């Protein structure tokens, strides 16, 4: 491929290997696929196996000829539980194994500028820090896509302020103390509402330190029957037995009877706003997405001789 040759736009979507981020980014990937863009979705081997086993993902994306899955190791053994209390192991695997392989894949592999399907844009989960450096090295743009809720994201980004104010870290006896360092939540946010890893006596605690470092980097570099479940795990249909039936009935009755009018008014308003934002051709979300698609189509990949 010669220098400055225009190639077909090709989006690489790279989620964190966790159920929530993967499900969220699959929806974004499908929207791109519907628009006819060439899309590669990069999963870990472990996540991809779970998707194939417990969801209809293969059937769902077979309708899009320009959509492809690729896999990459997460650095953990097959029998590793990958549970929430072992997330630091996953972080180590990402840094030690996934990061160098990701770089190799984009520089020398099937998605490099030397291949027949070079990537022209990376959309990476906001939880990663390394894609921006790799993208910069090889000369392609990268967008960060945060899959956590806006309120959680805002709280994370306020961590430096919380530390500066002495509100993090905090002790158990401070659980009911109001938090003032997260703008817009001063009247109701308490220490107990903050993420669990904020509850430490040591600022050098690994999860807290990793998040703080990630925020600093982000600031510096910002620019039979088909199974339609979104769960990566086998459905446990016995879960209702875990709950207190009386409590459930009381809650449902309160919502559907005592607060029926309030509930209907609120849900109608939310539905209207959603339709206006997404469904209408001139709505903000619809317009912004179409503009993003057009920007992606106009992107060019300039290859450089080695």
From TrEMBL:
Gene3D superfamilies: Glycogen Phosphorylase B. One of its GO terms (molecular function) is quercetin 3-O-glucosyltransferase activity. PANTHER family: GLUCOSYL/GLUCURONOSYL TRANSFERASES, GLYCOSYLTRANSFERASE. Belongs to the UDP-glycosyltransferase family. This is 7-deoxyloganetic acid glucosyltransferase.
């Amino acid at each position: 491929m010669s220098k400055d040759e225009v190639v077909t736009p090709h989006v690489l979507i790279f989620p964190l290997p966790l159920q929530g981020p993967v499900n969220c980014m699959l929806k974004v990937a499908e929207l791109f696929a519907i628009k006819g863009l060439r899309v590669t979705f990069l999963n870990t081997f472990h996540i991809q196996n779970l998707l194939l086993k417990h969801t209809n993902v293969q059937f769902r994306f077979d309708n899009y000829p320009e959509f492809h899955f690729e896999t990459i190791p997460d650095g953990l053994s097959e029998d590793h539980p990958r549970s929430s209390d072992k997330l630091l192991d996953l972080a180590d695997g990402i840094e030690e194994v996934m990061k160098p392989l990701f770089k190799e894949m984009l520089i020398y592999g099937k998605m490099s500028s030397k291949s027949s399907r070079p990537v022209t844009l990376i959309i990476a989960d906001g939880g990663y820090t390394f894609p921006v450096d790799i993208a910069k090295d090889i000369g392609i743009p990268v967008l960060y896509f945060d899959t956590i809720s806006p309120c959680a994201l805002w709280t994370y980004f306020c961590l430096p302020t919380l530390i500066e104010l002495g509100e993090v870290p905090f002790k158990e006896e401070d659980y009911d103390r109001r938090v003032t360092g997260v703008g817009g939540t001063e009247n109701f946010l308490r220490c107990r509402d903050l993420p669990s890893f904020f509850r430490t006596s040591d600022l050098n605690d690994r999860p807290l330190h990793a998040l703080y470092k990630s925020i600093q980097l982000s600031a510096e570099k910002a620019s039979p029957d088909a199974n339609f479940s979104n769960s990566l795990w086998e459905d446990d249909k016995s879960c209702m037995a875990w709950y207190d039936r009386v409590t459930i009935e009381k809650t449902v009755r309160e919502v559907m009877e005592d607060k029926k009018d309030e509930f209907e008014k609120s849900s109608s308003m939310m539905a209207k706003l959603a339709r206006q934002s997404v469904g209408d051709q001139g709505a903000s979300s619809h317009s912004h997405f179409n503009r993003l698609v057009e920007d992606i189509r106009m992107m060019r990949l300039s290859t450089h001789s080695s």
